[in-house]
Structures are given as structure tokens and as C-alpha cells.
Write a structure and sequence with these properties.
With 713 residues, the protein is α+β, with helices and mostly antiparallel strands. 35% of the residues lie in helices and 21% in strands. It has 21 helices and 25 strands. The strands form 7 sheets. A 9-stranded mixed β-sheet has the order 3-2-4-5-1-22-23-24-25, sandwiched between helices. Strands 6, 11, 12, 15 and 19 form a 5-stranded antiparallel β-sheet that branches. Helix 1 packs parallel to helix 3 (52-66). The chain is flat. The two termini are 62 Å apart. Belongs to the helicase family. DnaB subfamily. Homohexamer.
């Protein structure tokens, strides 16, 4: 039976593209030749078969092949019988017919390509039909519709067969030439940026990398990235796309012209060009006009629009892009109301786009004003806007073990799981940490909540509020932040119900062990539990007070050196001796009240809050607490974690493969001996070393130049 399609290719009754004879010949060849399945398994997918019976038979052959079993007529018949599929495909007669109609499997490779071609044509028709339906979705914004339409076509173009195994001899010559050119300093594994020391450290920009270039204003971020764009586009004839959200395309072109012609930007802006400079300007225009640099100066551009433009440019140029530059990150338009969440989604989407198009993406970012308040104004990772750090004693609970570990003890480790909040479901989930690092010594503030939670963080660290993520310096007393209701415990129950019940009391150092209650029947239950658990070692005494009852749980023997009350020893062994009220867990039953209230008032929003893993605690104080070394974690996907039983965010660098920070000392100290020197701090490098390189900076032409000669790496 033919595969049922959910659409017609056009208004006629034409069948979708297919070649049933080729499908039968492929399956017959597999049944006849034990080696045939190995020749097509990596290039022919089951979905490529137009006849559903053929698809089932091919899947059976693939399953047997992966299990290193033969795919002859008997084996496939047996497998289909065992899985109740033999009757569905037409029985033994169907398989026998396939064998009878096939002479050999000699042409199976060509037949597989033919069947895949027909499949891709059907996929194209299907995508076209889906695009038609998208056009009628008037409730969806047009840019999203266009992006989805382009994505569907793009997905079809990516469904290509793999190249398969290639003999080593076919690649040895190219490999030797590649090694030779790298030895001579001519080629790198990635895309060279034209700055020798930076290329030596990064081995070129790797395709699919997201690179953050950050600095305070007037450090030369835009000029630096324009130099990168020019070096890659002019030096290697690779298309470069520049998305400028701050400067117009005319301003960017003037900068490129000034750099290329050696004429000050102010002269170009005013038109004061000397007679002997016109020739240089003309040559610069000729050279730049041949350089594949493309500029879009749309303000508030979205990732969706960038993706659409980049795909279109790649198709027009018929080659992979060399670089995408976005100037700058904080000006990009997001999809939500909260800026922190927007930036997290934007960086996540940019990383996905870099992988999708196999192109390095550079996103410029402003650093926070905290740099200006320090004596040493060289930037650090924690200076990235919308990011922050925690002090080293902040306890992070490991999801796999339940242990609470100071964040400073996690530095240099990765691959471990923590608890993080899924903001879509408001449930806690396990999340893998890919990086734990120190970000230097910073001023920190200590935040305390009504329930006694406490955490110390930098001013720009974010906490989740009812109105979304907010920096610590945007919070104040009487506001509420998000805490986990509970954290899942790893392991099995190790306490009896009697022990759990008895733990409800309060034990404090230098006090008698006692239980206080206003309920008349509770004291007898407490005395009974103490007797059940500790037998004759505890003597219970119930004492009525003014409006409550005290149950004194005294030791039967005299307490001396080395001899303690049995209950005190037991509670201390559990690690909960002398805990005050704010250090105890909030009973889960308490949270069921919110759901009952929601049902009574018929609220649409309250049930969502009532069924979450979080609750809201009031801030009672935020105080400056000196300077300390601070730390952060990188948690992909969810972008937050639980520390000190508070849900905290992590920084925007988490999605970046490389973070570079620019610094020019002469901006702050005009008399510095480093005038004309720019420092590029490689603060994060996911796949290589970090460090600092120096470049020459010519402010007249807003141009960065190599300070060192090229090396043989």
C-alpha cells in the first residue's frame, strides 16, 4: 500500500514522486546478497520508501544488520513473523516476489540514490504544502512565519546522504599539504582573523562558535570587529555579515574607508579631503567594493531576522559564511518582558544559529559600570552585563548525591548535576554544569530573607522575583524572591515514623530536652514515642504551664563527662541539633492551601503557582559586606541553579565558546607608557587556553594592527 500523504501535490490527481521498481530491486538485492545492506544502510533511510510495506521490510533488514545477523530471506521472514508484521506486508508471497524480480544487487548503490532523490522531492512538496498553511496563520507574526518557512526548506536541503568511507589514499595528499601550510604559519584549523597572536591562541575562529567581544564604551569594540570582518572577507574572500543595531551602514562604511585609505574619519565626515588623498580614497573604494562584506543596520533586529538574512546570504553566495557580527547584544529585540530572560534566550539562539549555519558568530556586549568603581579597571568575566557571581561559601546541592558543596570547591570541575528551575513548568529539574570558575575579588552584598535564608553575591547577580529576573542592586526590602519549596532527596527512607514524629520538637544547646505544645493530647504521644524509641534510657515528665504543656525528656542516668542525653545524641547524629525555626523545612501540606484557595476563587493563575516547586520569601535586608573572591557556574539550557536554598541565575557568557574583553589603559590614564596599545583578554576559551594579547591601536583611523610578527606555531 502506498504511503499516505497528508496533502496533494497540486490540484490534479498526480502521484507524488516515487519509483516502486527501484524500491523492489533494493529489497530484492538485500534478500539475495548478504553484503548489500551494508552498502546502503548509511545513505538510505526507511522513510525514503514510498510503499509502506517496503519501509517495514527495510527496517527489519536494518535491525538485523545492526545486530550483526544475516538479512537473507529466511532471517527476515522469521523476524517479521516474530514481530507480527509478516501478514501486514503481504506474507511470504510478498518476499518471494521481491526475490524473483531481482537478478542481483550490483546496482544497489545507484538505486539507493534514486530512491533518496524521490524521497527528497516528496519532502519538498510536503514542505511547500506546510508553507501554504503557514501563510494562512494570520495570528502568527509575519517574521516568525517567514522564518518557519525558510527553516522547512532549509531542513530539506540538509537531508543529504553522508559521504561514507573514503580510502586513506584519497586524502593523504590534501592532509600533507594542510600540515605543511600550518607548519609555515599559512593555515589554521579555524578561520584566521588576521591578528597573529590571537590566531595562535585560538587556532582561528572555529565554525559554530559563539564569541562574545565585551568592553566598556570607547574601547574600540566596533572598530575591532570591523577589522576582523575586513581581514576575513578581504584575506580569504569569505562572506561576512554585519548586523549593526547602533550605527548606520554609512557610518560603518566610513570607518572601513578611513581604515583602508589611511584618512582620518573626521576628514571623511566633513569632506575635507586633500588633493593627494583622493587617489588613496579611490583605491580604497575599489578594494572595498570587491570585498564580500554585507551590512544590515536594522534597529532592534531579532534573532529570527538575523537567521533569515544569514540563510539567504549563504544561498546567494553559494558558499559558507566566514563570519557573522552583531553590534551589539543588549540592543537586540527579545520575545519576553524580562530583559535577563530575553538575553539568555538571545545568546542561546545565537549559539544554535552558529551551529545551524556552521559559522562563527561574534556578538558585542557592553560591560557593567562596576568596572569604573575599581582601581584596576581591566575587565573580568563578572563584568558582563546581566551576569554576576556568588561568594565561595555559597552551598550548591548536587542533584546526584544530595551533598551540599561550597561553590569554591567546584572550580575546575564539570559534568556534575545540580538542581535548576524550569521556568516553563516551574518545576525543579536536574541540570548539568559545564563550567565552574572564579571571577576574581569583587564587592559583595549579603541578602537575607524573612525565613532566614542568606546569600552573598555581587550587585549584578540576578534573583528570580514575581516580576522576573532582577539584579541584586535592583532589589530592596519587602520584595519577594523565589526559593525552592523542597529539594528532592537521593536515597531511601532511613528513619522510622516514630523517629520522624519525635523530630518535630525543638532541641537547643544548654537547654533541657523538652517538647512544648498547646494541645492537650500531644504530650502523652510524645512520652509514648520517647519510650518506644529509647526504652528506659529516657524518663518523660509532663508539666502543665500557664497556657501550654512541657514534656521534659530527661536521661535516666546521671549525665557526666562523656555521657549525654540519648535524644540529644540522636538528634546531633542527624545533623539537626540546635536548629531554629527558620532552619527547618516548610511542611508540604502548607502548600496545598494555595490550591484550595485557587479553586475557591476560580483563579486561572493561582493553580499554576500552587502546583509548582517554588515559593516566595520576603527580603528583609541587603547590606554591603566587603570584598571577597566570587564564583559562578555555567548551566546550559535552564541557566540557573540552587545555592543556599535560593534560586539564582548565571551569566550570559554561559553560551559563549570564547569571551574576549578589550582594554586600553590610555583611556583611563592618558600618561600611561602603554599609549597606543590595546589589550585583548581571552577570558574564556571553551576549547583552548586563555590569556592576554596586545595589539596596536591607531585612533586616527580607528584601526587595530598586529604588534608582533607572524610566528610558526
Amino acid at each position: 500500500m502506498a504511503e499516505e500523504l497528508s496533502f496533494q501535490s497540486d490540484g490534479s490527481n498526480r502521484l507524488p514522486p516515487q519509483n516502486i521498481e527501484a524500491e523492489e530491486a533494493i529489497l530484492g538485492g538485500i534478500l539475495l546478497d548478504p553484503e548489500a545492506i551494508g552498502r546502503v544502510s548509511d545513505r538510505l533511510v526507511p522513510e525514503a520508501f514510498y510503499i509502506s510495506d517496503h519501509k517495514i521490510i527495510y527496517k527489519a533488514a536494518l535491525r538485523l544488520h545492526t545486530q550483526q545477523k544475516p538479512t537473507d530471506l529466511l532471517s527476515i521472514t522469521s523476524w517479521l513473523t516474530d514481530n507480527d508484521l509478516l501478514t501486514r506486508i503481504g506474507g511470504r508471497n510478498k518476499l518471494a516476489t521481491l526475490v524473483d524480480r531481482t537478478v542481483s544487487a550490483v546496482n544497489i548503490d545507484a538505486l539507493a540514490e534514486l530512491v533518496m532523490e524521490k524521497y527528497l522531492r516528496r519532502q519538498l512538496i510536503k514542505a511547500g504544502n506546510e508553507i501554504v498553511h503557514l501563510g494562512y496563520e494570520t495570528e502568527t507574526e509575519l517574521p516568525i512565519v517567514l522564518d518557519n518557512a525558510e527553516q522547512k526548506i532549509f531542513n530539506v536541503t540538509q537531508e543529504k546522504t553522508q559521504s561514507g568511507l573514503i580510502h586513506i589514499g584519497d586524502t593523504l595528499i590534501n592532509t600533507f599539504q594542510d600540515i605543511e601550510t600550518r607548519h609555515q604559519g599559512i593555515a589554521l584549523p579555524g578561520i584566521p582573523c588576521g591578528f597573529y597572536d590571537l590566531d595562535a591562541m585560538t587556532t582561528g575562529f572555529q565554525r559554530s562558535d559563539l564569541i562574545i567581544v565585551a568592553a566598556r564604551p570607547s574601547m574600540g569594540k566596533t572598530a575591532f570587529c570591523l577589522n576582523l570582518a575586513h581581514n576575513i572577507a578581504a584575506g580569504y574572500q569569505l562572506p561576512v555579515a554585519v548586523f549593526s543595531l547602533e550605527m548606520s551602514k554609512e557610518q560603518l562604511v566610513q570607518r572601513l574607508l578611513a581604515s583602508e585609505a589611511g584618512i582620518e574619519s573626521s576628514y571623511l565626515r566633513s569632506g575635507r579631503i586633500a588633493q593627494n588623498q583622493w587617489e588613496n580614497l579611490s583605491r580604497a573604494i575599489d578594494k572595498l567594493s570587491e570585498t564580500p562584506i554585507f551590512i544590515d543596520d536594522t534597529a532592534n533586529i531579532t534573532v529570527t531576522q538575523i537567521r533569515s538574512q544569514a540563510r539567504r546570504l549563504q544561498a546567494e553566495q553559494n558558499k559558507d559564511l566566514g563570519l557573522i557580527i552583531i553590534d551589539y547584544l543588549q540592543l537586540m529585540e527579545g520575545a519576553g518582558d524580562n530583559r535577563v530572560q530575553e538575553l539568555s534566550r538571545i545568546t542561546r539562539s545565537l549559539k544554535g544559529l552558529a551551529r545551524e549555519l556552521s559559522v562563527p558568530i561574534i556578538a558585542l556586549s557592553q560591560l557593567s559600570r562596576g568596572v569604573e568603581a575599581r582601581t584596576n579597571k581591566r575587565p573580568m568575566l563578572s563584568d558582563l552585563r546581566e551576569s554576576g557571581c556568588l561568594t565561595g561559601d555559597s552551598l550548591v546541592r548536587l542533584a546526584d548525591t544530595g551533598l551540599q558543596v561550597p561553590i569554591k570547591d567546584l572550580v575546575g570541575k564539570s559534568g556534575f548535576a545540580v538542581w535548576a528551575l524550569n521556568e516553563n513548568t516551574m518545576k525543579l529539574e536536574k541540570a548539568i554544569v559545564t563550567n565552574a570558575f572564579s571571577t576574581g575579588i569583587k564587592p559583595v552584598f549579603t541578602l537575607k530573607t524573612r525565613l532566614g535564608r542568606k546569600i552573598s553575591a555581587t550587585a549584578n547577580h540576578q534573583f528570580l522575583t514575581i516580576n522576573g529576573w532582577k539584579r541584586l542592586d535592583e532589589l530592596s526590602s519587602k520584595q519577594y524572591i523565589c526559593l525552592p519549596r523542597h529539594l528532592p532527596i537521593i536515597g531511601k527512607q532511613t528513619m522510622t515514623y516514630s523517629e520522624v514524629a519525635l523530630l518535630g520538637g525543638c532541641t537547643l544547646p544548654s537547654h533541657a530536652i523538652k517538647y512544648t505544645t498547646r494541645e492537650i493530647d500531644v504530650p502523652e504521644n510524645v512520652a509514648f514515642l520517647a519510650k518506644e524509641l529509647f526504652s528506659d534510657a529516657i524518663v518523660s515528665r509532663i508539666s502543665p504551664e500557664r497556657r501550654w504543656y512541657q514534656v521534659y525528656l530527661s536521661a535516666a542516668q546521671r549525665l557526666t563527662h562523656g555521657i549525654r542525653n540519648s535524644i540529644a545524641k540522636w538528634v546531633e547524629s542527624l545533623g539537626v541539633f540546635a536548629l531554629r525555626s527558620y532552619e527547618k523545612c516548610v511542611p508540604q501540606d502548607l502548600f496545598s492551601r494555595a490550591l484550595r484557595v485557587a479553586n475557591i476563587v476560580k483563579s486561572g493563575e493561582l493553580p499554576a503557582f500552587a502546583n509548582t516547586d517554588i515559593y516566595w520569601d520576603e527580603i528583609i535586608s541587603i547590606k554591603l559586606d566587603g570584598e571577597e573572591e566570587v564564583f559562578d557556574l555555567t548551566v546550559p539550557h535552564l541557566h540557573n541553579f540552587v545555592a543556599n536554598n535560593i534560586i539564582v541565575h548565571n551569566s550570559i557568557e554561559q553560551d559563549a565558546d570564547i569571551v574576549m574583553m578589550l582594554y586600553r589603559d590610555e583611556y583611563y590614564s592618558p600618561d600611561t607608557p602603554d599609549r597606543g596599545i590595546a589589550e585583548v583578554h581571552l577570558a574564556k576559551h571553551r576549547n583552548g587556553p586563555t590569556g592576554t594579547i596586545k595589539l596596536l591601536f591607531d585612533p586616527q583611523f580607528t584601526k587595530f594592527k598586529n604588534l608582533a610578527r607572524p610566528n610558526n606555531w
